[in-house]
Design goal:
Elements (H helix, E strand, L loop, with lengths): L1 E4 L7 H8 L18 E7 L8 H20 L5 E7 L14 H15 L8 E7 L9 E3 L5 E5 L6 H9 L9 E2 L6 E2 L11 E2 L5 H15 L4
Parallel strand pairs: 2-3, 2-4, 4-6, 8-9
Antiparallel strand pairs: 1-3, 5-6, 7-8
């Protein structure tokens, strides 16, 4: 089962998010035409995550991040999110050992080939897991790679953090911010604190890194 969320206008975001994760229904919204292909985030929910968790997962991990990406980080770009459930050979793979990343990369690559999706930076693939996806960590991704894994039981920034790595964001440009409410950490801090809250945002430096990376994807090949 696949759910599609193309980039949507600001006034429609709340309604779209309310619909999209209600049991991972197939849902689509009209996107404005763009010259470049859409930057598409393919998010696969592992079979060990019950359907009853769908709304919680979306609210904690996805909705605010997608809104920030479309409204702030990559405003004006064509961004899509596709959530996949119950895909044999993909959402039922074994994870949690030191071969989990390579196993996921292989499964996602075969899915992409079957669906005729190019692995060229415009498609990013993440497996959400019910437990730690890789020994000693709640998420894993390669810098400017196309594949990532993240546990739904990690902190609220885990999806933003791991996808951030695939978009060229780095730990060194993360920030701890002060505010009237309390201090907060931006999405790319190396390890989430038990004291600070999540800013639910990338630092300005990492926002610029992401924009530069995506702009580079759009440049003609030499």
């Amino acid at each position: 089962m696949t759910m599609s969320i193309p980039r949507i206008r600001n006034k429609c975001i709340a309604a779209a998010f309310a619909l999209c994760l209600g049991g991972f229904l197939n849902t689509a919204f009209a996107a404005e035409p763009e010259k470049e292909p859409p930057l598409t985030f393919h998010i696969f929910a592992h079979d060990d995550i019950p359907d009853s968790e769908a709304q919680r997962v979306h609210t904690r991990l996805l909705s605010w991040w997608l809104a920030d990406m479309t409204d702030t980080v990559l405003r004006g770009w064509n961004i899509q999110a596709r959530i996949h459930r119950h895909v044999p050979g993909v959402t039922d793979i074994r994870y949690g050992d030191d071969r989990a990343y390579d196993r996921w990369k292989g499964s996602a690559t075969r899915f992409a080939e079957r669906e005729k999706l190019r692995i060229n930076g415009w498609n990013k693939f993440m497996l959400l897991t019910g437990a730690s996806p890789y020994p000693g960590t709640s998420g894993i991704a390669q810098h400017e790679g196309d594949f990532a894994l993240a546990s739904v039981n990690a902190n609220a920034a885990v999806v933003a953090h791991e996808f951030g790595h695939t978009l060229s964001a780095v730990h060194d440009d993360s920030k701890v911010r002060g505010s009237d409410a309390w201090w907060c950490e931006t999405n790319m801090v190396p390890s989430a604190s038990q004291i600070y809250r999540d800013c639910r945002a990338y630092s300005p430096e990492n926002q610029e890194r992401i924009r530069t990376y995506v702009t580079g994807l759009a440049l003609p090949s030499p």
